[in-house]
């Protein structure tokens, strides 16, 4: 067993012979791993230590409270099918509310917004029909292709599962979603709606997103009219806070890991950026893929290459506190298809699903900018980003005030995993091979499952379980 460290950790009351499990990264995956390990701490006699590079936990799940507003910097929505996430929320005592069945957003084309609503009021249904017939973004052929894709994906619904992705792996060829669309004559649907949807869900394009992942995303978030999302009344911030609080005893902030030690054919601990060697009997690496490739130098070349092939889209997310809603009534998003005369991709307001995310009488919107436009913003300071984004929003949403109650900028150079074609299978195979080529090392993170908050949490739970059974076998 690893030599016990005198530094306080969540395992300080354990016996000196306790096994030490190190978790690298305190995002959703790392925290879910720590939570799972903590639940088994007594019986497994293990010490848990989570080493986080930055000065805050949460990674891409980070939220903060600003003047009574529960602002989210990254993930915002939990889907009905996210069973692991819902189980963890239940365990943490966080109540999730089903969103109203109505779904609706407005897409910009030809100088105005056009509404598309699912299960909406009669007025909204008429508005949707008008969009499908008259919007310059829509064509009859595109609508027909949309119906064909709907039928195609409905037949495959059981395979497009974010919780149990075993059948999705069979669909995961090297093809991108753009290639899949071309092969199935879905080009007009892609131009009309699919490309925009993929931009919003991945911060990337159909050329970058794998065909299987693209199908799963589109079925999950837009095409399947029966499903709903879930959120706590305060929004995802309530889940973030409960998870962060439950793991606070185990987390060591501002401790970047430089290297995971693989010696004598197994994982032995880590070396931090300050040169400290921390011994561990098992290591769970819960960073993004490119960091994992960098900090695990002893892996076989082809496994490192597979990690390096994982790609992410960039996104700048800017949150604003407001006195009143700026979006059309009944619409939760204003969307800008590629080629729109703006650098904005989406402006959202989740008030319908999370009514307590803002104080009474106030509301909150988030503006998302992706890809090359996000990279341009990253080079600016926060005040300049806010100034440019407010100015741009006022061109399209006249009710947007010049001076919002507050603004917060979140920069995500690696925001959303694009799961390029073949990645899901590669990561599945890689996890299988690790047990023989690097026993004691476990990979977690959204990219190791179906990328999403649920994929991250599921990977954390499963890697914690795997590390415990590994230690039992030592
Ligand atoms: C704007 C945005 C909106 C999103 N919306 C949704 C949504 O609505 N629904 C959904 O399901 N998903 C959404 N996602 C995706 C979701 O947030 C992620 O899939 C999930 O949070 C990823 O968690 P993770 O733990 O795998 O990775 P991360 O959150 O990236 O965590 C990795 C952690 O490792 C730390 N780290 C990195 N390097 C080191 C090192 N060397 N040593 C120690 N620590 C290190 C990082 O600081 C970070 O805390 C969104 C993401 C973004 C950015």
A few lines on this structure:
With 474 residues, this protein is an alpha/beta fold. Helix content is 38%, strand content 22%.
Spatial order of strands in the largest sheet: 8-7-16-17-18-15-19
Can you tell me the overall shape?
globular
Within the CATH hierarchy, at the fold level, what is the topology of the largest domain?
A: FAD/NAD(P)-binding domain
CATH superfamily of the largest domain: FAD/NAD(P)-binding domain
Percent in helix: 25-40%
Number of helices: 16
β-strand percent reads 15-25%
Low-confidence stretches: 1-9
Overall mean confidence score, pLDDT: 94
Reported CATH architecture of the largest domain: 3-Layer(bba) Sandwich
Number of domain modules: 3
User: What is Rg?
Assistant: 23 Å
The CATH class label of the largest domain is Alpha Beta
Distance between the termini: 9 Å
Keywords:
single chain, 474 residues, alpha/beta, FAD/NAD(P)-binding domain, Polyamine Oxidase, Chain A, domain 2, 3 domains, five-stranded parallel β-sheet, 20 strands, globular, disordered N terminus, binds flavin-adenine dinucleotide
Q: Could you characterize the architecture of this molecule?
A:
This protein is of the alpha/beta class. The protein has 3 domains: 19-59 and 236-311 and 420-473, FAD/NAD(P)-binding domain, CATH 3.50.50.60; 101-137 and 312-417, Alpha-Beta Complex (Polyamine Oxidase, Chain A, domain 2), CATH 3.90.660.20; 139-225. 38% of the residues lie in helices and 22% in strands. The chain has 16 helices and 20 strands. The protein has helices at residues 28-39, 41-44, 83-91, 122-134, 140-155, 168-171, 177-183, 187-202, 211-223, 236-247, 289-295, 301-309, 371-378, 382-396, 423-437, 453-473, and strands at residues 19-24, 46-51, 63-66, 69-72, 78-79, 97-98, 103-109, 112-118, 229-231, 251-252, 257-263, 266-272, 277-279, 282-285, 312-322, 333-335, 346-348, 363-370, 406-417, 441-443. Strands 8-7-16-17-18-15-19 form a 7-stranded mixed beta sheet, sandwiched between helices. Strands 10-2-1-14-20 form a 5-stranded parallel beta sheet. The protein starts with 18 loop residues before the first strand and ends with a helix. Residues 1-9 have low confidence and may be disordered. Flavin-adenine dinucleotide binds at residues 24-30, 51-54, 59-61, 74-77, 256-257, 286-288, 291, 295, 315, 317, 412, 415-416, 445-446, 451-454, 456.
């Amino acid at each position: 067993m690893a030599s016990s460290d005198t530094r306080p950790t969540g395992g300080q009351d354990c016996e000196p012979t306790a096994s030490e499990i190190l978790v690298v990264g305190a995002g959703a995956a790392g925290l879910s791993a720590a939570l799972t390990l903590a639940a088994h701490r007594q019986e497994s006699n293990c010490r848990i230590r989570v080493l986080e590079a930055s000065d805050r936990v949460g990674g891409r799940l980070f939220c903060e409270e600003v003047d009574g507003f529960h602002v989210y910097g990254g993930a915002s929505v939990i889907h009905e099918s996210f069973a692991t996430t819902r189980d963890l929320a239940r365990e943490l005592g966080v109540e999730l509310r089903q969103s109203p069945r109505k779904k609706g957003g407005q897409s910009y084309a030809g100088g105005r917004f056009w509404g598309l609503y699912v299960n909406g009021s009669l007025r909204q249904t008429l508005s949707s029909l008008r969009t499908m017939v008259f919007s310059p973004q829509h064509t009859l052929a595109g609508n027909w292709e949309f119906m064909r894709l709907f039928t195609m994906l409905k037949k495959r619904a059981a395979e497009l599962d974010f919780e149990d992705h075993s059948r999705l792996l069979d669909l995961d060829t090297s093809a991108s979603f753009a290639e899949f669309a071309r092969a199935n004559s879905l080009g007009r649907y892609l131009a009309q709606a699919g490309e925009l949807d993929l931009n919003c869900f991945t911060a990337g394009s159909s050329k970058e997103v794998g065909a299987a992942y693209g199908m799963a995303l589109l079925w999950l978030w837009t095409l399947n009219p029966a499903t709903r999302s879930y959120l706590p009344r305060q929004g995802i911030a309530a889940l973030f806070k409960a998870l962060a609080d439950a793991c606070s005893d185990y987390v060591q902030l501002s401790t970047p890991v430089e290297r995971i030690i693989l010696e004598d054919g197994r994982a032995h601990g880590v070396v931090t950026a300050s040169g400290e060697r921390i011994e561990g009997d098992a290591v769970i690496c819960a960073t993004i893929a490119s960091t994992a490739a960098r900090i695990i130098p002893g892996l076989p070349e082809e496994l490192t290459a597979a990690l390096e092939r994982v790609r992410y889209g960039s996104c700048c997310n800017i949150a604003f506190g407001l006195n009143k809603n700026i979006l059309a009534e009944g619409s939760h998003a204003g969307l800008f298809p590629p080629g729109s005369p703006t650098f904005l991709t989406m402006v959202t307001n989740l008030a319908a699903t999370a009514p307590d995310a803002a104080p009474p009488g106030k509301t909150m919107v988030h503006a998302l900018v992706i890809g090359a436009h996000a990279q341009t913003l990253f080079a600016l300071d926060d005040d300049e980003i806010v100034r440019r984004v407010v100015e741009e929003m006022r061109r399209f949403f006249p009710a947007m005030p010049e001076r919002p109650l507050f603004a917060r900028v979140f920069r995500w150079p690696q925001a959303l995993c694009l799961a390029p074609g073949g990645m899901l299978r590669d990561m599945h195979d890689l996890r299988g091979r690790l047990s023989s080529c690097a026993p004691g090392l476990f990979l977690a993170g959204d990219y190791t499952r179906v990328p999403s908050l649920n994929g991250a949490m599921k990977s954390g739970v499963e890697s914690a379980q795997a590390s415990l059974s590994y230690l039992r076998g030592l």
